[in-house]
Amino acid sequence: MSVFEANLREIAKQSPELAAALRAAQGGRLEIRPAKSGYPTGFAQGRAIHSTYDPVKESISWATAQIVSCREGDVVLVFGIGLLYHVEALCKVLPPSIRIVVAVPDLVELHDACAVRAWGDWARRVTWVWGVPHSMARRTMELGSSVRFMTYVPAARLHPDAHAAIEESVRRSIAHAAGGQLRIAVVGPIYGGSLPVTRSVVTALESLGHHVDWIDHSAHATSYHALARLEDARHRQVMQNKFAEFLSQLTLVRIAERPPDLVLAMAQAPMTLSVLEHVRKKHFLTAMWFVENYRHLTYWQQMAAGFDFWFVIQKGACLDAFRHAGAKEIHYLPVAADLAAHKTVSLTSDEMEEFGADVSFVGAGYANRREILPQLITPEWRLKVWGNEWDGATAIEPVLQRGGVRIDTETCIKVFNATTVNLNLHSHTGKGLDPEADFVNPRTFELAACGAFQLVDHRSLLGELFTQEEMATFQTFEELPQRIRAALHEADIRRAMARAAFDRVVREHTYQHRMKELLTQVGMAQPDRVGTILKGEREAAQLSRRCVDHQELVPLLKNFSVTQRVELEQVAERIRHRGPTATLSREELLVLMLDEYRAQTRDLI
Amino acid sequence: MASLIVQLARLGDLLQTLPAITSLTARYAGERFDLLCASTLTDIVSLFHGTARAVPWEADQWQQWALGWTNSPDSTMTAAQDHIHQLAAQTYDTVYNLNQHPRAILAAHLLGRRVVGPGSAGPLYENLPPWGTYLRKVARDRSANHVHLADAFCGLCGVMPPGRVPRITPHASDLPGSLEKVGDPRYHWVAVIIGAGDLARCLPPAIWARWITALLNAHTAIRVVLIGSSGEIGRSRAIQETLSPLLWGRVWDATGHTNLLQLALLLSRCHWTIGSDTGSLHLAAAVGCRTLGLYFARARVHETGPYGDQHRVWQSSTFAPDTWPIDESLDFIVAQTSVPQLTECTGWQLWEGHVDEWGMSYSRPGQSNVSVDDRMAVWKHCMSMDDRENVLL
User: In this structure, which of A157, A502, B5, B146 has its CB flanked by the most CB atoms within 10 Å?
Assistant: First the structure.
């Protein structure tokens, strides 16, 4: 029997369909040459997939480095096939309690792997998943919910898109299944654009069942702005910095009073690097959702190493820049819509008259808007501009509403609902359209959530959030008048697109979706700390089940309701409540001792 | 019978436990005494007379277990149980606990049948024994402390102070490189402790450079040894860079070059040790080196002055002094006059140590034993009725 047939027989024991598919497939993805050690090694696209000296030794080193964070019951999903030396090594170093799953995005490559060398008993331990990403993810999740990804980069780089799709699908499945309650401290800014996003984040997390402690610094905005009235610029700077430092300390105290599982800071939240360092030393997980353009607000460069996780609204160069600045974990997470805040409303005829227009724009008077919007003033349609910071923009005055005062969210929603064509022009401090048009602003999602039709300037990241059937865009200023004109005359198309955009938002782009995504990323990177909570493994009933060798602990846990999340702190507190004359068992003394060290390690102040 | 003494605090407190160990072993002759201390300090306990074994307490390991408990409570409990069993296969008959924090109280109850000192009424009983109350009051009110901390440790154990100065004898372990020359009898050796565990107690490098310059200029036989941890190498460099190059040949830099046993040996070869770090001063005192303490910030002479006769301490009246008693110290360090000529300078007062049957006390030079009545009153107030009958009467 050939090596290929022998290996195929092993696969067939587990998956006859995969074996049949492999038999029908043709090989040829990999070029096989002998390594210096004599073992065969593989090449693809001119690059070696395994060591050209000793692929076995190299794979053992790789596997040993990978398994450090694994624990019993995990399911390891391996990306990258090659000649499977790395999978063989994993089988050797991982205990049997850990399942090993190999994703097969390409039958041709696995066909090559089958034909080159005889597999040993290790192959029986491997579960193969193949097909479309969704089914691979589902099959993996069936084996266990504690999934760890292991990427053997030299081989995985042949199919990056397929692996990303599987990973995404697994993450979504885990997020969907997550039900445990986290304690999350959300640190908001003093003022600014990230403040309403913070509100939405808090609401979304609460709606997902988590306990949220909103450290709301907007209460201090009046004092902060009062400092701006100091005449000497140096005094102003010094006092505002000291005020921000004070608020940073206040954040620390708030975190100390109600220790969270995760500190989620929003962009512009007052947290100094020294406070962050202190929080991290005490083993608190920290994350920042930087809902700002990283090119304009650059303080992240000093803070990059301070947070455990960064979430940003841009990709590509942005992710690289954060990594170079010292960010350990960086993920793309676009903004979204808050369906409770932005919604379709019915308006009276008076309101339609006041807030309605053929074309409206809501926003602050950035340079590009000051240049573009006056050129859209024409008798052909009725244009209204709403918002503040338009001082000195005389050309816009004829259409500027309420003298350019800031309007609240309720008014915005009325404008969006009453307008035929809502213009969404991303801000830019120069002239014309933003030349580095990548991220998508919150307005895009807000308009869609209101069921309003919008014309938005093209953004490179828009395509993966909305299709062309859901969102009307323009690439240049020159084409804008024509696009407005067309939209005004095509009511059916307008309504269909607005409806489609609304449906897409409800389906995929709410802050609940984003928070699930964020927590899943954190949970997968920290399966022992956050992942277990999300999976409900810290609930009293689950903990009791795991105390098989320490039945003495079970009575302690029985004091809690079965679904109540129980931490060491709570168990210790119950013991202390028994009063000063209580006689304690050895286990109880140990619990108290452990809690003393928990407090010493975790207590911030 | 086997007993355990629990002292989980830092080096200074561990060395201040020596009088209690001396008194306990004298009173309970033939009984075995082990000492539970931070695992980083067990080497120094090997030099103590009277203790059979240093039992290492691994605080880092407990922290790891504390963080991992919820993920795997069963395996964490098993590991912690095994650890306690390894520390003491059999429970001690009596545990003398010298620390008031819950970790020490819990450790005492985990390891022993009977607890003496804080926690004696039970692990959750918050009321302290009289000596514990006394120490807490002194610490909280910053009030006059007539009984030295080391003697209060004796009181916590239910024994009187030993009435003499307990010493430790360093092993003749190898000193690194050029430090072997320290102790050359042709010279008068002064150890300078350049740092302190508490940043507020650190003298600026420029001030140390002034001290060292004054010492070296006062007599050609003076040699200075800089003492510090590996984290204080930068301070040492800063001090040396400020010194005149002409003085460099008379300064030995031991900063970051010694472990605890080597440091004990090094200090035993010096005539004087000067510094503001109480832990190192206690070590110097324990190996028989005279000490000059510079006490400011939270350090107080009556509480933690080095244990023994003839040690001197300058006590600052301010938290962060801006003048330093340098010239005022030269006569007794360099000229070795038995009675200091100057006992005060702006913001500072000089105190001198004495040991008697009531333990250690510090008084102004020439005014010894003024606090005997005060100390006796504290002892009578704090000793329990049983202890009073056994010890005092």
Answer: B5
**ipTM for this prediction:** 0.90
| C-alpha distance from B67 to closest chain A C-alpha (Å) | 6
Distance from CA of B106 to the nearest CA of A (A): 6
Q: How many CB atoms lie within 10 A of CB A40?
A: 15
CA-closest candidate to residue A459, choices A313, A354, A276, A595: A313
CA dist., res. A571 & res. B256, Å (int): 43
pLDDT for B103 equals 96
Mean pLDDT for chain B overall: 90
Give the mean pLDDT of A296-322. Answer: 93
CATH number of residue B230's parent domain: 3.40.50.2000
Q: What is the pLDDT of residue B393?
A: 41
Q: What b/e readout covers B260-293, taking b as 16+ CB neighbours within 10 angstroms?
A: bbbbbbbbbbbbbbbbbbbbbbbbbbbbebbbbb
Q: Are residues A164 and A103 in the same domain?
A: yes
Of B69, B75, B126, the CB nearest to A568: B69
Domain end residue (candidates: B129, B157, B185) = B157
* Model pLDDT, residue A196: 94
> Which of B70, B111, B115, B120 is most worth mutating to test chain A (most A CB atoms within 10 A of its CB)?
B70
By C-alpha distance, the chain A residue nearest B108 is A589
Residue B293, phi then psi, degrees to nearest 5: -95, 145
B224, B188 contact by CB (below 8 A): no
The span from the CA of A194 to the CA of A85, in Å, is: 48
Q: Are residues B190 and B113 in the same domain?
A: no
Same domain, A158 and A233: no
Q: Give the pLDDT confidence of A158-183 residue by residue, as tens digits.
A: 888 888 888 877 776 776 666 667 88
- The bridge status of strand A329-332 relative to strand A309-312 is parallel
Alpha-carbon A529 to chain mean position = 17
The three-class DSSP label of residue A542 is helix
Among residues A388, A360, A363, the alpha carbon closest in space to that of A455 is found at A360
* Contact indicator for A248, A240 with CB cutoff of 8 Å: no
Which segment, A126-135, A332-341, A546-555, is predicted with the most confidence on average? A332-341
Residue that terminates a domain, selected from B124, B157, B190:
B157
Domain of residue A87, residue span: 3-177
- Measured distance CA(A65)–CA(A60) in Å, rounded: 9
| A580 contact B CB<8A | yes
SS3 sequence, A182-216? Answer: CEEEEECCCCCCHHHHHHHHHHHHHHCCCEEEEEC
Close Cβ partners of A167 (under 8 Å, ≥ 6 residues apart): A79, A149
pLDDT at residue A603 tops 70: no
- What does the mean pLDDT of chain A come to? 90
Report how far residue A315's alpha carbon sits from residue A445's, in angstroms, rounded to the nearest whole number: 18
Taking an 8 Å cut-off on Cβ atoms, the answer to whether A584 and B109 are in contact is yes
Report which DSSP code applies to B390. I
| A601 in reach of chain B (CB within 8 A) | yes
Residues A168 and A238 in one domain: no
String of DSSP letters for A359-372: EEEES---HHHHHH
Please tell me the distance from the alpha carbon of residue A450 to that of residue A360, in angstroms, as a whole number.
14
Q: Rounded to whole angstroms, how far apart are CA atoms A5 and A593?
A: 60
Q: What's phi and psi for A231, nearest 5 deg?
A: -75, -40
Residues A161, A47 share a domain: yes
pLDDT for residue B384: 66
C-beta separation of B153 from B20 below 8 A: yes
Domain range for residue B87? 2-157
